[in-house]
Specification:
Number of strands: 29
Radius of gyration: 25 Å
CATH class of the largest domain: Alpha Beta
Structural class: alpha+beta
Largest sheet: 6 strands, mixed
Strand content: 25-35%
CATH topology of the largest domain: Nucleotidyltransferase, domain 5
Number of domains: 3
Shape: globular
Length: 544
Amino acid sequence: MGISVGIDLGTSNSVVAIMRVGGPEILEDSGGARLQPSVVALGHGGQPVVGKIARQQLTYAPDTTIASAKRLIGRRYSDPEIQRIRAQVGWSLFEGDGGDARIRAAGKTYTAPEISAHILVHMVKIAETATGETVDSAVITVPAYFNDAQRQATRDAAQIANLKCLRIINEPTAAAMAYGYERNQNQRVVVYDLGGGTFDVSVLKIGDDVIEVLSTAGDTFLGGDDFDQVIADHIRKAFEVEGLGAIATDHQTNVRLKIAAENLKVQLTEQEEASTTIVGLARAASGVPVDVEAGLNRTMARRLCMPLIQRTFVVCDDALAQAGLSAAQVDGIVLVGGMTHFPIIKEAVAQYFGEDPIDHINPDEVVACGAAIQAAQLTVVSNEPAPILLDVTPQTLGVRTVGDMMDGIIPRNTAIPTSASKVFHTVRDGQTEVRIKVYQGDAREVRSNYLLGEFILDGLEAGPRGHAKVRVTFNIDADGMVGVVATASGTGSSKEMRVESSSNLSRDEVDELRFDSDGLSGEDEYLDLDDDDLVLGEEDDVTD
């Protein structure tokens, strides 16, 4: 049997950890790097390259180098976020047969789970080299606000990589596990998780033997990429205002600008002012290449980034309100994600909560550490009791009703396991059946939410409009599995559906994409370079 690891599959960087006798340990590659860029380069004759080497190719091969694929995973092509991404990348996006967003690069097509699978293989190879053992399973983390499709797409990535996924665990919960490991402290903790592509905040209660999620909220399209873009836009504007030349808007130029912006941001982590030179980025009126000298100080960075920081505090407001707490009632703030190294983020978070965040935990590594702790608890026989995880539903669950609206039955941030019901009535004379469409999301219109499944309940008692009543009951177990039962009054006719986790890929497609034992996809050689609708009207509701 192989060993089990914890993998933080991040938007910008990924981390792998294992549980040792003394606690969780981050595993390094042969060069001593603990963070691995979540970048896959495809321009090598079908030979994918992952990590540091791949990231270096962003500047000269942006059309075949895939970064931030996590922003695509589990999303439909029609999502507004996907359309935003299309304008920011050098490769092309198109709609797959299942409605998902797929990638076209290097003359081939790829799914987002397939790209993520290459990253997982890379992390597994690092772990196997570091430990000298075979890795056969992992706990993989996702943002707390990921919906069912995004979670299943992450499981699909593991299956494609031939890696057994022991459990999908929320990043804030993993961070809380690492923070609370062997501390036995009763605290109410906020996990502020600002990564490369997503922002999550969770409020948790950490007890001696229980980690309870009180609430969670998030923005799946807010992260370090957006901060880099704001700074890149500032560099462009500041240069062009000086009248020294013009900066092109092609993708390769934009990538160079964002890398320079990230460089300034990293410098500002350690010093008050930063500068960088982007050689030959612009063109003078005569067509001669012109270097761009870019500078930034913390004061200017604070002004540029404050609108994005304020967006995170709107999410914090929501999470605290859902938990029934004020900022002053929080015992500790755990920072997660590379962006939280940025001093202006730390300062703003301290000001919002009225106290300094916890600073003895590495924001880049805490999530992987928590995942490793969970992996050990799931696979290692021990006399020590593992803490119980009590989670919540990240998004509202409900059904489609008249006017293409969603009527929520289980609100988001409801503690699980749970059960809730609502009674609806027919809206047409003589109606003897209804189509139950189950959705997940927090928007009122179903088109903005995610369809989990549907079924038809027949055998309703015919009569005038409103005569037949249907009770729809949702049940969620401790593992987050959802069951839906619809029962007709009068006739007692009943139909139930188990909501099986589903991404936009069919099981056959996942099997076809599965890598071979060497981590290859098809003929690819993997280079580990090290470097009728539900027309019901609501009548009443009953919650159990």
